[in-house]
Design a protein that fits this description.
406 residues, Aspartate Aminotransferase, domain 1, Aspartate Aminotransferase, domain 2, 2 domains, seven-stranded mixed sheet, four-stranded antiparallel sheet, binds pyridoxal-5'-phosphate
């Protein structure tokens, strides 16, 4: 039997792998040194641990260890990449190209640059699967473009962009290419040279490491990419990111990268099986369900589905022993449907009906069966109470119905 509650929201965060915790523990206690202490063994020990982690991180993405700058997470990495490049290259131009379905850490960094007049930004659209068209990118480039920032894989719908092609276009035009690869690193093979990536953001807590630590890869050669630091201080991390290093967190990030690299192939097969089982189970038992995102160019653990005639939020309430996400952000006073789902051209109603399942390392086949069963039963129950679903079943085209407003 399964243990409740079930966590199936692995795009939001992941539990720390026990092997990662084990690697971290000594660095809280006997090995507590400051990695910047150059004159005693405590410092050397910490520095050695950080060097080892840097190698583990670099190996996972095909980088050199000196190209890895430690940060507090991908939000900071995205800010540093975008604001750092725009500031450093301001004499060359002030135009940035990004995409409408990016994470808020990217979109809000771009907005901040627009607000302060430091950059103009082009937001590329996506197709119905959530993918950018490389031709749109080509057409958006001007002689003032200094940065292209496009994510590797989307955190809501799992769509994987044609990154190597985007990288080729950037290289051809001599423009720096930043990629928020938080959801892709450790999940699908990422290689900064093959993919033509100049700057890459990653985060530990999305790959079974601890929260509050991440990194940014900064290309050192062909071309050497420069950034204006956003944090001033002791000149740590080759001057790009000052602040005492979070040694325990860094050790955890390194270990998480090492495990991901060693087990990715096998884990992907397993996650793909579980995801496909979940998808098949839902689509076999229910009518009027729609897949959001790309059918194949997609993260193995991601499933995003709209259940027509059912409010995502109501569905979540009905399955409270299962942790998944809905496409409605109820953080604000207004219930806004997800801007990502909307960007795919999905209508507002269906966007409100979307649920994101994130299958991860610690999910089991039994859990997938349980979730399939609970979700399909709850959707049926909610639809039984829905007059709209009844009308649609009777063949009434809801778009032609004249609703009275009183
Ligand atoms: C989670 C996430 C981030 C933010 O990472 P933090 O380390 O939590 O700051 C950025 N981009 C994407 C795509 C994410 O999924």
């Amino acid at each position: 039997m399964v243990k409740l509650p079930i966590y199936m929201d692995n795009h939001a965060t992941t539990p720390v792998d026990p092997r990662v915790i084990e690697a971290m523990l000594p660095y809280f206690t006997e090995k507590f040194g400051n990695a910047a202490s150059r004159n005693h063994s405590f410092g050397w020990e910490a520095e050695e641990a950080v060097d080892r982690a840097r190698n583990q991180i670099a190996a996972l993405i095909g980088a050199k260890s000196k190209e890895i700058i430690i940060t507090s997470g991908a939000t900071e990495s995205d800010n540093l990449a975008i604001k750092g490049v725009v500031e450093f290259y301001k004499d060359k131009g002030n135009h940035v190209i990004t995409c409408v379905t990016e994470h808020k850490a990217v979109l809000d960094s771009c907005r901040a640059l627009e607000r302060t007049g430091k950059a103009t930004v082009t937001y590329l659209p996506v197709d119905k699967y959530g993918m950018v068209d490389p031709d749109d990118l080509r057409n958006a480039i001007t002689d003032k473009t200094v940065l292209i920032t496009i994510m590797y894989a989307n955190n809501e719908v799992g769509t994987i962009h044609p990154i190597a092609e985007i990288g080729r276009i950037a290289k051809e035009k001599g423009i720096v290419f930043h990629c928020d690869a938080v959801q892709a690193v450790g999940k699908v093979p990422v290689n900064v040279d093959r993919d033509g990536i100049d700057l890459l953001s990653l985060s530990a807590h999305k790959i079974y490491g601890p929260k509050g630590v991440g990194a940014i890869y900064v290309r050192s050669k062909g071309p050497r990419v420069r950034l204006t630091p956003q944090m001033d201080g002791g000149g740590h991390e080759r001057g790009m990111r000052s602040g005492t290093l979070n040694v325990t967190g860094i050790v955890g990030l390194g270990k998480a990268c090492e495990i991901a690299g060693a087990e990715m192939e096998e884990e992907n097969r397993r996650l793909l099986d579980l995801r496909n089982k979940l998808q098949a189970g839902i689509f076999e038992r229910l009518d009027e369900v729609y897949l959001n995102g790309h059918p194949t160019a997609r993260l193995p653990g991601n499933l995003n589905v709209s259940f027509a005639y059912v409010e995502g939020e109501s569905l979540l309430m009905g399955i409270s022993d299962i942790a998944v996400s809905s496409g409605s952000a109820c953080t604000s006073a207004t219930l806004e449907p997800s801007y990502v789902i909307r960007a795919l051209g999905v209508d507002e109603e269906l966007a409100h009906s979307s649920i994101r399942f994130g299958v991860g390392r610690f999910n089991t086949g039994d859990e997938v069966d349980f979730v399939t069963d609970r979700v399909t039963r709850e959707v049926k129950r909610l639809r039984e109470m829905s007059p709209l679903y009844e009308m649609a079943r009777e063949g009434i085209d809801l778009k032609t119905v004249q609703w009275k407003s009183e």
